[in-house]
Each structure stands twice: as structure tokens, then as C-alpha cells.
From TrEMBL:
Pfam family, one: CoA_transf_3
This protein's GO CC annotations: mitochondrion
Keyword Transferase (UniProt): yes
Lineage, opening ranks: Eukaryota, Fungi, Dikarya, Ascomycota, Pezizomycotina
Leader peptide range in chain numbering: none
Name of the molecule in the record: Uncharacterized protein
GO function term, MF aspect, one: succinate-hydroxymethylglutarate CoA-transferase activity
Region (Disordered) residue spans: 17-37
Length: 378
């Protein structure tokens, strides 16, 4: 399976904003001044090449147009109409490459009353319902611990691009894909959105780690942390009761069905919690081992990245970075039977590949030097 050539077009002097989002930074190993590379940038830029370019300059616009002529896909995240000022909008570029798939990612889309608003993950989490259903029962709304709306939008966009590529195989035509954080966040409300649409009632608010319609199905305290227990049906609930030493709870008339357990959750959940607090998380993991019931330790991110299963699945990979030396990165989750998806190249330094890319476009060494002198590229 051939690998995609992904070219990241960055601001000519400061680069991608995330290069400055730190600390922490991976320290430089080349002795030059500066903080190194931000962990944030390193997280999302593996296997890319960096072209540092000023597309406000006519010569910079010409370079992007030249790239677009032979590219399969262009992804941009500017406010609607911004790139049209430079002749870099879909209509302009598609006229030179009818097969171009042009994906625009914005906060609120190309149309609608909010289309001119800048949209960041946390604002969209708030505006589009996610924050209202995230947090402890009775507590304040909170954002998800990672920029999950950004991530789901990226995943939806990659799916849309793949669909457009398949369509192009038959039609020979590319297309403009309009993706927004707001649309994707609404889509990922999933069963909660469906419940509200069907019932006509407001959502049930925040449930912490608990489930609104399954009991017991949440995190319980241990003597040194927490464990997630999933008694998702009557059989699994019976296993839970037996393993914690109270098989009689499985036949207690208050708890014999899930509907009953939901009704009496405020009685049952504290009963379980009082027992789980008597042992460590590791002791409970050993007790539930092989039971067939879903369970898990509530780990922090450091424990996750040193977890035996995570390491066995190759999800942490060390690569050599141009200026920072060896750095560890999270690997791609894809596992193919007839191909290998991996980190081929470390995230690039700003403009690391400018010369190579311009040479591939036919620029001479003198032309490249002139562009660099004029501040068009770096």
C-alpha cells in the first residue's frame, strides 16, 4: 500500500500555532537556542512535510496553486471566503484540477447564521450540547479532557475524503467538502440526541461515570483509586455480586432486573462502593479476572502509556526528530493484514522540506534562494 505524501503549508515565520502551545517542549539536542518542539505539535504532525510559505504574497499563491494542480486532496481551516481573496478557494483551484477534493473545516460551516464565527473545540462543546452532559451528577458542566470535537471532526472529514475519492474513481470529478465542528458535535450526541428527539424532553444532564439507564455501570472507589464495573445485564450483575462476596444481592427483589436497579440505584450503588473501598484496585482486578464481566482500572495517562497491553499493541513508538533527537510518540491505531501503518517520519521542523518540495515543482536553486530572500518561503 502506497503512503500518502502530506504537505503541511505553514506560516513563513511562526509556523503552525501549535508549535507555540507549550510547555512541555521536547528539548533541542542540536545546541541551538529555543525551547525545542511543543508536545502539542508533535502529537499531530507525524508523517508530514513542512513547507513554510507566505500565501499572501503573489509568488506564494502561485506555489500553492502549482501544488493544487497535481494534488488529490487539499484541506484548509480558514473562515468562509478567506482564501477566495488569494485565488485559493475551491472554485479557483478546481478550474485547474477537476479531480481535486477540497475539504474545508470550520467551526460552524460554510452556511448558516454562525458561519462567520471563529470556532474552537471548547466553544462548540458548550454550544452544541456536549458540555451539558459531561461532568458529575449535580456538578457544573465540564469540557472533555481532550479536544474531542476537533478529533471527531477530523475523523468525519477523513471518512468524507475517502468517500469522495471512491466517487471520483467513477465520476472523475472532485468536490468541495464542507465540514464543521458544530455539525460533527451534533452528530456525536448519538443516542442522547435521539432520546431528546423521540421524547421531546430535555436531556438528563450529567451522570459522571454512571449510565442513565444501566445499573451498576460506573466507577467505584477502591482503597487506592477507582475501578469501572459494568453489570450491563442480569447475568453480569450476578457475576459482580458473587465476585464482591454478596451473591444474595442478585436475588434481592429491589435489584433483580435492570429496571429495578435503575429505580434503586441510590441504594445499590453506595452498597457496592462500600465494599470496593476495602481493597486496592489491583486486588479487584485480580478478583474479576476471567469472570466474563467488563471491568477496568481508572488509569491516568502515564499509566496508560506504560500499560502492558498498550505497549504490546505497539501504540508507543520512538522516532528520531531533526532537532530534538529521540522522542516517543503515540502510534497510529490502524492494523492492516496486508500493509503496515506506522510513523515513517517524525513531525517536521518549520520549513524542513521547503527546498525539496519546491525542487519537485521545478524551481531552481537560485529561484528558491530568491523566494527565501523575499520572505516568501523559509
Amino acid at each position: 500500500m502506497d503512503s500518502a505524501d502530506v504537505i503541511k503549508v505553514e506560516h513563513v515565520t511562526r509556523g503552525d500555532d501549535t508549535r507555540a502551545w507549550g510547555p512541555p517542549y521536547a528539548p533541542r539536542k542540536d545546541g541551538k537556542p529555543g525551547p525545542g518542539e511543543s508536545a502539542y505539535f508533535l502529537a499531530v504532525n507525524r508523517n508530514k512535510r513542512s513547507l513554510a510559505l507566505d500565501f499572501k504574497a503573489p509568488d506564494g499563491q502561485a506555489i500553492v496553486k502549482n501544488l493544487a494542480k497535481t494534488s488529490d486532496i487539499l484541506v484548509e481551516n480558514y473562515l468562509p471566503g478567506t482564501l477566495a481573496k488569494y485565488g485559493l478557494d475551491y472554485e479557483s483551484l478546481q478550474s485547474q484540477n477537476e479531480g481535486l477534493i477540497y475539504a474545508s473545516i470550520t467551526g460552524y460551516g460554510q452556511t448558516g447564521p454562525y458561519s462567520d464565527r471563529a470556532g474552537y473545540d471548547v466553544m462548540v462543546e458548550a454550544e452544541m450540547g456536549l458540555m451539558h452532559i459531561t461532568g458529575e451528577r449535580g456538578g457544573a458542566p465540564v469540557k472533555v479532557g481532550v479536544a474531542v470535537t476537533d478529533l471527531t471532526t477530523g475523523l468525519y472529514t477523513s471518512n468524507a475524503i475517502l468517500a469522495a475519492l471512491l466517487s471520483r474513481n467513477f465520476s472523475k470529478q472532485g468536490q468541495h467538502i464542507d465540514m464543521s465542528l458544530s455539525d460533527c458535535q451534533v452528530a456525536t450526541l448519538a443516542n442522547i440526541a435521539s432520546s431528546v428527539l423521540i421524547s421531546g424532553k430535555r436531556d438528563g444532564g450529567r451522570w459522571g461515570t454512571a449510565h442513565p439507564s444501566i445499573v451498576p455501570y460506573e466507577a467505584f472507589p477502591t482503597s487506592d483509586g477507582s475501578i469501572l464495573l459494568g453489570g450491563g445485564n442480569d447475568k453480569l450483575y450476578g457475576i459482580l455480586c458473587k465476585r464482591i462476596g454478596f451473591p444474595e444481592w442478585a436475588v434481592d427483589e429491589r435489584f433483580v432486573t435492570n429496571a429495578k436497579r435503575v429505580e434503586y440505584r441510590h441504594t445499590l450503588v453506595p452498597m457496592i462502593g462500600e465494599e470496593t473501598k476495602k481493597k486496592t484496585t489491583q486486588e479487584w482486578l485480580e478478583i474479576f479476572e476471567g469472570s466474563g464481566m467488563p471491568y477496568a482500572a481508572v488509569n491516568d495517562v502515564h499509566d496508560t502509556l506504560t500499560h502492558e497491553h498498550v505497549l504490546a499493541r505497539g501504540m508507543v513508538q520512538e522516532v528520531h526528530h531533526e532537532t530534538c533527537g529521540p522522542v516517543k510518540l503515540v502510534n497510529t491505531p490502524f492494523k492492516f493484514s496486508n500493509a503496515e501503518a506506522s510513523i515513517r517520519n517524525a513531525p517536521p521542523t518549520l520549513g524542513q522540506d521547503t527546498n525539496d518540495i519546491l525542487e519537485e515543482l521545478g524551481f531552481s536553486a537560485n529561484q528558491i534562494e530568491d523566494l527565501r530572500t523575499d520572505g516568501v518561503v523559509a
